[in-house]
């Protein structure tokens, strides 16, 4: 059975006993303490040892960080200590992080903040000013992790007991509500699918009636007349407005010419054939303001709105 892996990050020699006590506590819970002195870190021969620690930390579930009075070993890649980089790695990888700071250092950090710009601050409790710089940055940027001062190891263990218990209770509450949440999720999924089906049906219905309306109207009026002019009695096309009719007329070889009377004529379609010119004029009277075709005209008025003309060339222009 998989168990939570808890990485313990701190300087080693000055906090050795604290690390051992916390490691024993975590092991007593049935969790796995990950500590380099207990062979919890798999070291390789191709990367620096500190990089192996960062890699091992990334695979852990919980990280317990302890900041004491000593800076410890400096990292290879930046000006921070290895412990500081371990804390940043844990936060970057979104681990559950608990940060404990020695009480005298934690208290002195307030004095550091008040005097850091003076250039004369000297720490009485740390061996390197970078410890205070790092703590100040943590307090300013870390918002969702625990940062607590401590005086004894017992305080750290008591805090971890209550925090781990809170995690377990939260997990149990989530598990208890999982069935209810899943039911609600399934219902929402079903509702979403039903809505999608209805929306798809409405769209198909709208497209059908759009085509149906244009087909019924145009086959009986504009389209019927133009198809008759062009000898297309067995063909049909859909054109709900003038723009759609323009596309069709261009496809069958007509061009759109300037109208002779902009107040009377809406469109003038012209096709030049070998021995004649064919002109189809669409009057304003059969077109609505939105460029759709009128349905309110009687047959006689409508037939006056779509005019067909043929003009033959002079015989002198024929090549025979």
Describe the 3D structure.
The structure is a single chain. This protein has 320 residues and is α/β, with parallel strands linked by helices. The protein has 2 domains: 5-151, Rossmann fold; 222-317, no CATH class. It contains 9 helices and 9 strands. Helix 2 runs parallel beside helix 3 and helix 6 crosses helix 7. The longest helix has 68 residues, at 153-220. This is DUF4062 domain-containing protein. It comes from Anaeromassilibacillus senegalensis. Residues 5-90 form the DUF4062 domain.
Helix-strand blueprint:
Blueprint: E1 5-9, H1 16-28, E2 32-34, H2 49-58, E3 62-67, H3 82-92, E4 96-102, H4 103-115, H5 129-141, E5 146-150, H6 153-220, H7 222-230, H8 242-251, E6 255-257, E7 265-272, E8 276-283, H9 299-305, E9 306-312
Parallel strand pairs: 1-2, 1-3, 3-4, 4-5
Antiparallel strand pairs: 6-7, 7-8, 8-9
């Amino acid at each position: 059975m998989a168990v939570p892996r808890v990485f313990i990050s701190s300087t080693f020699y000055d906090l050795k006993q604290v690390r051992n006590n916390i490691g024993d506590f975590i092991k007593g819970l049935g969790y796995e303490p990950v500590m380099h002195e207990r062979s919890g870190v798999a070291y390789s021969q191709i990367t620096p040892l500190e990089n192996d620690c960062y890699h091992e930390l990334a695979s852990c579930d919980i990280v317990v960080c302890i900041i004491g009075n000593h800076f410890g070993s400096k990292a290879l890649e930046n000006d921070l200590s290895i412990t500081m980089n371990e804390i940043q790695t844990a936060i970057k990888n979104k681990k559950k992080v608990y940060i404990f700071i020695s009480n005298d250092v934690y208290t002195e950090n307030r004095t550091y903040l008040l005097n850091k710009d003076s250039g004369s601050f000297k720490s009485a409790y740390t061996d390197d000013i970078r410890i205070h710089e790092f703590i100040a940055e943590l307090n300013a940027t870390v918002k969702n992790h625990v940062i607590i001062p401590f005086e004894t190891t017992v305080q750290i263990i008591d805090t971890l007991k209550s925090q781990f218990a809170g995690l377990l209770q939260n997990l149990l509450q989530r598990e208890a509500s999982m069935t209810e949440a899943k039911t609600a999720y399934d219902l929402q999924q079903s509702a979403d699918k039903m809505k999608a089906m209805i929306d798809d049906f409405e769209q198909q219905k709208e497209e059908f009636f759009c085509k149906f309306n244009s087909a019924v109207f145009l086959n009986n009026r504009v389209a019927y007349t133009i198809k008759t002019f062009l000898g297309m009695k067995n063909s049909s096309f859909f054109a709900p407005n003038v723009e759609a009719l323009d596309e069709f007329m261009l496809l069958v070889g007509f061009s759109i010419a300037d109208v002779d009377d902009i107040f009377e004529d809406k469109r003038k379609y012209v096709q030049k054939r070998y021995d004649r010119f064919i002109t189809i004029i669409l009057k304003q009277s059969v077109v609505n303001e939105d460029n759709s075709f009128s349905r309110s005209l009687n047959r006689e008025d409508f037939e006056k709105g779509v005019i067909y003309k043929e003009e033959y060339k002079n015989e002198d222009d024929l090549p025979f």
